[in-house]
Batch of 2 targets.
Target 1
Amino acid sequence: MLQTNAIDMLREDTLLSASLWVNVALAGLAILVFVYMGRNVETPRARLIWVSTLLVPLVSIASYSALLSGLTIGTLEMPAGHALAGESVLSPWGRYLTWTLSTPMILLALGLLAGTDTAKLFTAITMDIGMCVTGLAAALTTQSYLLRWAFYGISSAFFLVVLYILLAEWPADAVEAGTADIFGTLKVLTVVLWLGYPILWALGTEGLALLDVAVTSWGYSGLDILAKYVFAFLLLRWVAGNEQTVSTAPPAATAAATDD
């Protein structure tokens, strides 16, 4: 990957660079807001939700700053069969580092909110990491167009496991924990927005190249803003106002054992 070429492309494309700067600015604002919102949270479980949620914009501001500085971007020559075969295409591969480190924190916060057991939480987080890492492999593969889509398929398979847990497993746990209403809202927000990422990959320069680099970058930035900062704000606002519910709700495994 040629980093120098990528920096030149980034400097010359105002629309592209703006898609990164907006995330740096909003991540910084989110950090300040979330610190203020969690200032009075005291119980251990509520504080763990708050810290895991706060880590989302912290990771994002570091990652997007790395993209803007050129540390985690480069140019790749697309393989034969790709719509841009033989051309050097900008690859902001640092986004995958952002997702690998931040999306597990989102799932941790959601799992704690739902009161799920450790096995389900571990499964969701590890499948999510697998999804992000194989997505990175799909984005960086240049020797074979088919292999890019193969990694995309593997990443999608990991994603299906995460979706199953979010849609089929955790809702029942949230009912037991007394957090079903807010969990339902955040679940829908997460599922709908996260579905946008593989769709955008397929339509963008990494996949079919129906969208150019700047449009693709803005698409990812828009999804990040909604799936991270808006999600975190809604979650923290509810936790701050319902700390007692969060602190007294037993994990699903414990509740099931009690029922037996």
Note: Confidence is low (pLDDT under 50) at residues 252-260.
Target 2
Amino acid sequence: MTAPALIALAHGSRDPRSAETITALTERVACMRPDLRVATAFLDHSEPDLDAVVDRLVAEGHSEIVLVPLLLTEAYHAKVDVPEAAKAARSRHEGLQIEVTDVLGIENAFFHVLDRRLREVLRENRVRELDALVLAGAGSSDAVATATIARAARAWGAHHKLPTIAAVASSAPPAAGEAVRAHRADGRRNIAVGQLMLAPGFLPDRVKELAYEAGAVAVAEPLGVSDEVAEVILARYAVGAVELVSLDALFA
């Protein structure tokens, strides 16, 4: 029996670097599991969209798809946009099963990637000492999503034994610059910023700009392409594939 296809569904961005990074990440997933049909799709701003990818997979003979949302928090896109997009795709193909998995979330493995990105920029900027951190997420009006970033900041700071403030690139404050200035008001001067976002684009650029303007000594790049993120995508896929098998058995 052919394994379900995997669609990695990202939000999308008008910045081409974002789509390039997500596509490269999906290619990393495909390299890890060459037995799977793996495809990339975007909700908005980038191509291909979900309908086009689903149409292509159905034309190839796939009747089961596991859709993994490449999102780090359970905010509006995860709760509304993704389910609606999946429902629309199902309605266009009779007999097609699409299982939507949980979002990627913020797994412990992602902190290893955060640290790696931070070490890279510290070397680049020749920074040898830190006395505070800021962890910036994309931001959301969803209180649960905002709390998720705050918990991640506390965990990251505790690991490094440094005071850490959560910041956001959009919606509710504090912005990265405000968080850096808050540390500086407490007398801290060697402040670095990590970015809990998947790919480069407008929001990560804004974080970098505001943080450096406020006096940060280093701002790391987003998580980007890494084995750790690819492995979490495959872990979500595995759960979704099992759910599809259970449905098959139920209706057999």
Note: Residues 2 and 117 are 37 Å apart (CA to CA).
